[in-house]
Write a structure and sequence with these properties.
The complex is a heterotrimer of chains A (449), B (124) and C (362). Chain A has 15 helices and twelve strands. Chain A has 449 residues and is of the alpha+beta class. Chain A folds into two domains: 195 residues, Metalloenzyme, LuxS/M16 peptidase-like (Cytochrome Bc1 Complex, Chain A, domain 1, 2-Layer Sandwich), CATH 3.30.830.10; 202 residues, Cytochrome Bc1 Complex, Chain A, domain 1. Chain A has a six-stranded mixed β-sheet with strand order 1-2-6-3-5-4, with helices on both faces. A six-stranded mixed β-sheet of chain A has the order 7-12-8-11-10-9. In chain A, a hairpin with a 5-residue loop joins strand 1 and strand 2. Chain A is globular. Chain B has a domain of 83 residues: Cytochrome b-c1 complex subunit 7 (Cytochrome Bc1 Complex, Chain F), CATH 1.10.1090.10. Chain B contains five helices and no strands. In chain C, the strands form three sheets. Chain C has a six-stranded mixed β-sheet. Chain C is globular and about 60 Å long. In chain C, helix 1 packs across helix 4, helix 1 packs across helix 6 and helix 8 crosses helix 10. In chain C, a hairpin with a 3-residue loop joins strand 9 and strand 10. Classes of the chains: A alpha+beta (449), B mainly alpha (124), C alpha+beta (362). Chains in contact: A-B, A-C, B-C. The interface between A and C is large, with 55 and 52 residues. Chain A: GO terms for molecular function: metal ion binding; metalloendopeptidase activity. Chain A: One of its GO terms (cellular component) is mitochondrion. Chain C: This is Cytochrome b-c1 complex subunit 2, mitochondrial.
Chain lengths: 449, 124, 362
């Protein structure tokens, strides 16, 4: 085989070991005596200030009977108070995830005092109108119905979690189901709020044109959250399994396959992310998809095996998923798509090359650093990590940890977590060609002498 | 080692070297006359074995007019083969008409393939 | 750090270069070319040229660019809108020289091989156009632009095949727009001195001087027009008003107001701010056409009666500041905005038009 001209001979030298410039901003932390954590990252370039509450109460804090209460509580609080926030010149938004929920305001520089007052009265001290809850319940149920009927990839991803983490809290769909949400009443929301919105479970994050001392002073003075500590949530446990929702009326097949991944605090958190970035994502309509640097994308694009796929390393507090989600209209060749994908995953254990690992690392750095592209994005990163696992790795730490990953680390991790390990499979659409579980499970290793 | 790129490289070397040029050029003219493809209306590039991905790709990039002309020559030659007759002398392809029309496209495609292989096996 | 402007006449290098420094490990390099759909002489020409960017160039093929870019940890893309084609790259900060060269080569040395057009550019362009036009809101937006501006800003954004475009047309257009006076280079996270040095040493300095094709005066606008477009799926009713530069602030606040919870109307507002003129649009959409009819009628009635916008000024200032952070477009000052009353407008009905009102019924 011809060995190629090394890229070092091209116009720019690829010196990957140079140190990076100083960080985007230093995050400052303060813990108050009542248990609230405050985190701030200032950026004097910013023209706005984001202030938000991150509460460690997402769908994992729910049970199968009140599944969706966290999301509905979000909607009720945001929609009933949006006008008042807007009058004060603030944008008010929220987000619900599996392990946390967030309420954030965006405003101009001097907006923090008003923001904290409103967040206190509307979120921390929220008073819920029973009729409004019923009204919002209808709207939310309709949105969930639309999600179930049109967002097939999203639905498959939720089912992947539901089957992989079955009988543990991580299995519950993030925003609930139409059935469970339609049964919620104001009392359920109040109970959930009382149990979970406590001081030990809350992080206040401020980013943008803000000063840490000012934020701490404001929180001490204005934010009254009931004392209390983080409620107990049982861990997520992975179970190799599958769920198939075959529907031949859909135009394509939507599949997701995942191994057990890494938790946020795992020492292999970054190795798993590099491994996912090695295979990356693919979009068949873009001309660049023919030129991507992965063997898998070459095979997929030559034979049109998939329309899109994206590899992920999803990490939660106690567990994670590592795999990919794909959408294909070439439904006769799903078996080929899955076969070639899993054989490529095998290569992570036996024959991944330094160039592929280097590529994955560089692309991961790019992805990580460019995801922090607004004060809100930075706040979300800080808040979600601090409220879930208690700390957030700074940008320099993350880059250093990514730099440390090498071929040996990837092979070791893949040999332990991917090679001949159970998978969780979920699919909908025209998945007749998605072979049975044992066929897929056997593809996770190769017969070698 | 039989890529068109390597053949062109060897050919350029021969044409640059006077001794080799004086041997090979007359020999190749004699060979072409004996082969007789021009007498059934074909050009040299029509004879290239085209059941390979590289040549198929190159053919797909031919301008429409060249493509129609190639197809016409193929049909003419097929008819000659069936009837076991050569074309009348006026219709034989002349030496100056026998241009390597497909060669630039072949070289481009082969360069792309070689570049892809090199980049697939890059060392960092 | 304050953004600094750069203009130099050394070696006749006339491109405007702005570098905004901030402490970070990543950089972006953007080349904004005045070559959007309003500048091109044929419909869809700007879109096809944008899609042709980052294909084979003389010094490096598209494949090589992609692979080298990945190993350096960078990404690039080319976007087209009504006024410009924007080529951008985002990368880890040390790769600046590579990307200066790469972007310069795209402008100067794209090969425009004949086979790339049918193999790569046209299929991607067709998908762009098909997916955009499948969305009735986009369709309404296109029709409102066409009604308001007719040509220029009213030309379709994407290539629809109505006007035949050949490879020669694209090459000619590229030669016309990729000139030093017609491009602006914007960078974040790079050192100003390094950037200007790299640029003046690079292919950018070899581009022809050319002339700026940016709009110099406000185009002619038309009001009181309407059109109807049948399609299956969601129904959309839209109203559009051309906006003079002096009135930008009023319409920005109006847009913020209508999109916020302060307004009880069930419509979406959008303000497209171009360099010499703006277009303000209100859209009502739903899968039920009668609901759309009611929403758009209510909105037009309330706006005709007049609105006090003072409650929304603070929110508008916030939204404009947020937009400036992401796009770099300078926020207009909204302090002086008072109220708004709707005058003449253009109207479009898309979808189940039998159940959507006519302009004179609003």
């Amino acid at each position: 085989m011809l060995s190629a001209r090394s890229i070092k001979q091209s116009t720019v030298s690829l010196n990957l070991k140079r140190t990076f410039a100083t960080a985007y901003g230093k995050t400052q932390y303060t813990s108050l005596s009542n248990g609230i954590t405050i985190a701030t990252e200032s950026n004097p370039d910013a023209k706005s200030a984001t202030l938000g509450l991150w509460v460690g109460a997402g769908s994992t804090s729910e049970n199968p009977y009140n599944n969706g209460v966290s999301g509905l509580l979000n909607q009720v609080i945001v929609n009933s108070n949006q006008a008042e926030f807007n009058k004060a010149g603030l944008k008010f938004g929220s987000n619900v995830a599996k392990e946390y929920t967030s309420f954030f305001t965006q405003g101009l520089k001097g907006s923090l005092p008003q923001a904290i007052e409103l967040l206190n009265s509307k979120v921390a001290q929220a008073e819920l109108n029973a009729e409004y809850v019923l009204k919002q319940r209808e709207i939310t149920a309709k949105q969930l119905e639309a999600f179930e009927e049109t967002n097939h990839a999203g639905r498959v991803f939720e089912h992947l979690h539901a089957t992989a983490f079955q009988n543990t809290p991580l299995a519950l769909p993030t925003r609930g189901t139409v059935e469970t949400v339609s049964d919620l009443i104001a009392q359920d929301l109040e109970k959930f709020h009382k149990k979970n919105y406590v001081a030990g479970n809350t992080v206040v994050v401020a980013t943008g044109d803000v000063k840490h001392e000012d934020v701490v002073a404001l929180v001490e003075k204005k934010l009254q959250i009931a004392a209390g500590s983080v409620p107990e949530i049982s861990a997520g446990k992975f179970l190799g399994s599958e769920v198939r929702l075959r529907d031949d009326t859909l135009p394509a097949a939507y599949i997701a396959i995942a191994h057990e991944g890494e938790a946020i605090n795992s020492p292999n958190y970054y190795v798993a992310q590099v491994a996912a970035e090695i295979f990356g994502s693919y979009n068949g309509v873009e001309p660049i998809s023919k030129n991507l640097g992965t063997k898998l994308s070459g095979t997929v694009s030559e034979f049109h095996l998939a329309d899109t796929y994206n590899h992920f390393s999803a990490s939660y507090k106690t567990a994670g998923l590592w795999g990919y989600a794909a959408e294909t209209s070439n439904v006769g060749n799903i078996d080929d798509l899955v076969h070639f994908t899993l054989k490529e995953w095998n290569r992570l254990t036996i024959s991944i090359s330094p160039a592929e690992v280097a590529r994955g690392k560089q692309l991961l750095k790019n992805k990580l650093l460019f995801s922090l592209n607004s004060p809100l994005a930075v706040a979300e990163d800080i808040g979600s990590k601090v409220v879930t696992v208690g700390r957030r790795a700074s940008v320099e730490e993350a880059i250093a940890a990514i730099e440390k990953v090498d071929v040996a680390a990837v092979k070791k991790w893949a040999g332990a977590k991917l090679w001949d390990q159970d998978i969780a499979v979920a699919g909908t659409g025209q998945i007749e060609g998605l072979l049975d579980y044992m066929r897929l499970r056997n593809e996770t290793s190769m017969m070698r002498w | 080692m039989a890529t068109h790129t390597s053949i062109v490289k060897a050919g350029d070397f021969i044409l640059r070297t006077p001794l080799l040029r004086s041997i090979f050029v007359p020999t190749s003219h004699f060979f072409i006359k004996q082969a007789g493809y021009r007498e059934i209306g074909l050009k040299l590039d029509d004879l290239i074995f085209d059941e390979t991905p590289v040549v198929q790709k190159a053919l797909s990039r031919l301008p429409a007019k060249e493509s129609y002309a190639r197809n016409f020559r193929t049909l003419t030659a097929a008819q000659c083969a069936i009837t076991h007759h050569l074309l009348p002398k006026e219709q034989w392809v002349k030496a100056e008409e026998d241009t390597p029309y497909l060669l630039p496209y072949l070289l481009e495609v082969e360069a792309e393939v070689a570049e892809r292989e090199a980049l697939d096996n890059i060392t960092v | 750090m304050l953004s600094r402007r750069f203009a130099s006449s050394t070696r006749g290098f006339a491109t405007k270069v702005t570098a905004k420094e901030f402490s970070g490990k990543v950089s972006t390099l953007t080349v904004k070319v005045n070559a959007g759909s309003s500048v091109a002489s044929k419909d869809g020409l700007a879109h096809l040229l944008s899609r042709f960017n980052f294909h084979n160039t003389t010094p490096r093929s598209a494949l090589r660019l992609t692979r080298e870019s990945e190993l350096l940890g960078g990404q690039f893309e080319s976007k087209v809108d009504r006024e410009s084609i924007t080529l951008s790259a985002k990368f880890l900060a040390e790769s600046l020289p590579y990307y200066v060269n790469a972007l310069g080569d795209v402008l100067k040395s794209t090969s425009f091989r004949p086979h790339e057009l049918p193999e790569s550019v046209l299929p991607a362009a067709k998908v762009d156009a098909a997916s955009a036009n499948a969305c009735p809101v986009f369709k309404a937006d296109e029709l409102l632009h066409a009604l308001t501006f007719r040509s220029g800003l009213g030309a379709p954004l994407y290539y629809d095949g109505v006007q035949k475009i050949s490879l020669e047309d694209i090459k000619e257009y590229a030669a016309k727009v990729y000139t030093q006076s017609n491009i602006e280079i914007i960078a974040t996270g790079v050192n100003q001195a390094d950037l200007t040095k790299f640029i003046s040493d690079s292919v950018f300095a070899q581009l022809p001087a050319g002339e700026s094709l940016a709009a110099k005066a406000a185009p002619k606008t038309f009001e009181g027009a309407e059109t109807r477009f049948r399609s299956a799926g969601q129904s959309v009713a839209g109203v559009a008003v051309p906006v003079k530069a002096a009135d930008y602030a009023t319409y920005q606040v109006l847009t913020s107001y209508l999109n916020s919870a302060l307004s009880t109307l069930n419509v979406e507002a959008k303000f497209s701010q171009y360099s010499q003129v703006g277009l303000f649009t209100i859209i009502a959409k739903s899968s039920d056409a009668t609901a759309v009819a009611a929403d758009i009628k209510a909105a037009v009635a309330q706006l005709k009666a007049g609105l006090d916008l003072s409650a929304a000024k603070a929110l508008a200032a916030t939204e404009l500041a947020l937009a400036e952070e992401t796009t770099g477009v300078k926020a207009v000052d909204v302090a002086a905005v008072k109220d708004f009353k709707l005058g003449k407008f253009n109207y479009v009905a898309v979808g189940d038009v039998n159940n959507l009102p006519f302009a004179d019924e609003l």
